[in-house]
């Protein structure tokens, strides 16, 4: 919705909100998942949050800023796919 060149830093603000709460949601979803998926969710959420902290601190771990953005986004996307599959399997689709 807000491309990188958006005025007033809207891209930065909404990306931070999305990535921060995506990682937190992945971690706290462990309460309603089976054990194996719960552990995976916590790990993926933690990886996303750690990568976000590194990105904010401008430490890109030789990945560049684009590679570090992917280290934030991909774990959240993988968690969302796994969690959606679990919900469809449990409650039908």
The number of domains: 1
Specify the helix fraction band.
Answer: over 70%
Strand content: under 5%
The strand count comes to 0
Number of helices: 3
Helix/strand class: mainly alpha
Main beta sheet: none
Nearest-integer average pLDDT? 93
Nearest-angstrom radius of gyration? 15 Å
Using the alpha-carbon principal axes, give the shape. Answer: globular
Poorly predicted residue ranges: none
**Secondary-structure element series:** HHH
Termini separation comes to 29 Å
Short description:
74% of the residues lie in helices and 0% in strands. It has 93 residues and is mainly alpha-helical.
Written overview of the protein:
With 93 residues, the chain is mainly alpha-helical. The protein has one domain (9-91). It is built from 3 helices and no strands. The protein has helices spanning 10-28, 35-56, 64-91. Helix 1 runs antiparallel to helix 2 (35-56), helix 1 crosses helix 3 and helix 2 (35-56) packs antiparallel against helix 3. The chain is globular, with a radius of gyration of 15 Å. The two termini are 29 Å apart. The relative contact order is 0.14. The model has no long low-confidence stretch (mean pLDDT 93).
């Amino acid at each position: 919705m807000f491309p990188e060149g958006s005025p007033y830093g809207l891209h930065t603000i909404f990306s931070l909100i999305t990535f921060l709460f995506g990682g937190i949601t992945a971690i706290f979803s462990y309460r309603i998942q089976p054990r194996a998926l719960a552990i995976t969710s916590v790990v993926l959420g933690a990886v996303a949050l750690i990568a976000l902290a590194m990105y904010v601190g401008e430490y890109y771990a030789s990945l560049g800023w684009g590679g570090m953005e992917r280290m934030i986004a991909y774990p959240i996307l993988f968690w969302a796919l796994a969690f959606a599959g679990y919900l469809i399997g449990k409650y039908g689709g």
